[in-house]
Design goal:
transmembrane helix; mainly alpha; single chain; transport
Length: about 240
Amino acid sequence: MATLELLGFGSTGWGALLILAALMTLAVTATALAIGAVLGAIVAGAKLSGNPLLVSLGNVYTTVFRGVPELLIIYLIYFGGSSAVTSIGKVMGYEGFLGLPSFAAGALAVGIISGSYQAEVFRGAYLAIAKGELEAASAIGMHRGMRFRRIIIPQVLRFAIPGLGNVWQLSLKDSALISVTGLAELMRTSQVAAGSTRQYFLFFIAGGCLYLILTSLSDRIFNGAERRANRSMPASAMGQA
């Protein structure tokens, strides 16, 4: 009975807070994935451009942010960013410490990490497009913008879905590291609940179960999206246009 009360079935329960924390985890992960998609698309374009300088910059980005520990990047963004904002504030006459919002700093940090992986996903997806489709599009007079909208983007997204699903799962787990910034996401709330009640095993198991639920549901969503994209592929393929 006491366990049920702790988990949310009593006036002193933590269940509602854990659910809200799970929603916060989804929100920060979705924001990070969106940031990473923009960065990943830019970096993938740079690596596919053929320009030596852009290719080198793209390689540096993916090498650094895939090779440096995620927690270190979060520390650099949160604490380093807060120090930079504080210095700018002092120049403008504001005295005192200015900290970055935990949500924004965490989403940006995980987004930068996610972008380094998404860049490779998008690059691989582009290279998987049949060259004959692009040649046929050029042969019938499609200009570059139309080819990009009607051939490249749909095909890249179709081929990228499995990889993006893996990146989503990675970002979902990386969101646990944002707890160091004080954001009340799932890991942070589980830690606070465990420390307040001394029921460490109970709340860490509850947090782990919620993570498993989120990852399992996410996996089903991405698998469904992949099946749907593969079913619609023949109708939109260039060879049947």
